[in-house]
Design a protein that fits this description.
By secondary structure, this protein is mainly α. It has a single domain, classed as Growth Hormone, Chain: A. The chain contains 16 helices and no strands. The termini are close together.
Length: 444
């Protein structure tokens, strides 16, 4: 394969900058906007998000089939990054412009329709094609690990920025103007990815004709012959459930448990700076012990950090310390998760003779969307169960217990499941043979 330059890896990383200007904003602040500014109940918000995410899982699988059948002068994934960019920008603006003159039912309908548009269509087309791009840029494991590392350094820096400046921006300009600013920044980032990357995998005529002529049912039957995609999909579900719940409840935790909403930016920094420092070590460590061992060690560190946060949830210093340890553990899993998807695509081609970039990524994206949806729904339902009242300056004890559990207790349970799912996802041990065999088939 042609060498992938650092400049191109950085351009690839900017795609997640674009995604996060939309999705980090949505996952971290949309529930707060709906409950405190629009006046929707937390239970309704949680239900909208879960139902939408289940629908989103279906659209993921449909779009994966479309992506596998896409063949343009720009490749398979890059054109969809271009075409979905205006949808992402417009969708973000619509989400944070709920017409305040509507009755409560009208607000619920507006919120549901706009959230479905963003989550089930715009973000599906954008993020699925972006995730597929990595396996189309290169087939080298180390290059994929390096590109994933750069990608998530970009992601973390963007998330820190959004977490730190959004509340002050909203205080000065309001939710509507802030969403317009973020939408424009996302467009710029996506264009850097589109123009700065190159797809190097060119399907053979046999592969291309088989993809076009094969039925959707045949495609799914072939996918289920790939034993790794199921365990990796479940790993996505639990990883993003933890992340979705943490993002949605974070600002409540900062305000109601630690006493100041502005602390949310500080705890976000504590959650991400150690991760950014640790991320460059990931390609080095994968070269020595492999991705799977790095990721399993990362889950253990996350577990330790989560326990510390739970035990000292009302002490800011202890919380920051626990989050820092947890962040170091998140680094190998953040970078490794999408890299093992690319390896699973190679395994599927090696096993069945059919390469399914779109459909395999759609299955894992399904796990990501369902996980985020469940996490967001748990936030809404949990707040409702704890009798959260947006009009109160000090929340009830039941609400505070729920907020503490969602932020500090739920991750502990989720990480145990993540270790189990990762245990069934070790492709490292056979990938060298896969790479040799595929290169022979392609005449390299």
């Amino acid at each position: 394969m042609e060498k992938v330059s650092f400049k191109e890896k950085l351009a690839f990383g900017f795609g997640d900058v674009g995604c996060n200007f939309v999705w980090t904003t949505v996952s971290a602040f949309l529930t707060l906007y709906y409950t405190d500014s629009v006046g929707l109940s937390a239970a309704v918000v949680g239900t909208i998000m879960l139902v939408t995410r289940l629908l989103d899982g279906v659209t993921d699988l449909c779009f994966g089939t479309i992506l596998d059948r896409t063949h343009t002068k720009w490749g398979k994934a890059r054109p969809w990054i271009l075409w979905s960019t205006p949808m992402m920008a417009i969708g973000l603006i619509l989400l944070f412009h709920v017409p305040m003159g509507l009755e409560n039912t009208g607000k619920i309908i507006y919120a549901a329709l706009t959230y479905v548009f963003v989550a089930a269509f715009a973000y599906t087309a954008s993020n699925l094609s972006y995730n597929a791009l990595l396996s189309l840029m290169t087939d080298d494991q180390q290059t994929r690990a390096s590109a994933s590392t750069i990608r998530f350094i970009c992601t973390m820096l963007t998330a820190i920025t959004i977490s730190s400046v959004t509340i002050p921006l909203v205080g000065k300009f309001g939710w509507g103007t802030t969403s317009v600013i973020y939408a424009l920044l996302s467009v710029a980032a996506f264009m850097i990815t589109f123009f700065g990357t190159k797809e190097r995998y060119v399907p053979s005529k046999t592969d291309e004709e088989g993809t076009k002529n094969g039925s959707v049912v045949e495609g799914f039957l072939t996918l289920f012959k790939n034993r790794y995609f199921i365990s990796i999909t479940l790993l996505f579900v639990i990883t993003y459930l933890i992340q979705g719940a943490g993002s949605g409840i974070g600002v409540y935790f900062a305000r109601d448990i630690l006493g100041d909403a502005n602390i949310y930016g500080l705890i976000s920094v504590a959650s991400m700076i150690p991760m950014i420092i640790a991320l460059p070590l990931f390609p080095i460590m994968t070269g020595k012990i492999g991705k799977w061992k790095c990721m399993m060690g990362g889950l253990v560190l996350q577990f330790v950090g989560a326990v510390i946060v739970l035990l000292g949830a009302s002490n800011l210093t202890v919380v920051l310390f626990g989050l820092a340890i947890k962040a170091v553990g998140v680094a190998p899993n953040t970078a490794g998760l999408f890299a093992i998807v690319a390896d699973a695509i190679d395994y599927g081609e090696w096993k069945t003779g059919v390469r399914q970039d779109g459909l395999t990524n759609s299955a894992t994206s399904f796990g990501m969307k369902v996980g985020t949806g469940l996490g967001s729904a748990l936030v809404g339902w949990g707040l409702a169960f704890g009798q959260y009242d947006a009009s109160l300056a000090v929340q009830s004890e039941s609400a505070l217990r729920v907020i503490k559990f969602l932020y500090a207790g739920l991750p502990i349970l989720g990480l145990v499941l993540a270790m189990i799912f990762l245990g069934f996802s070790n492709i490292d041990k056979i990938h060298p043979q896969i790479e040799r065999d595929l290169n022979q088939r392609r005449g390299k």
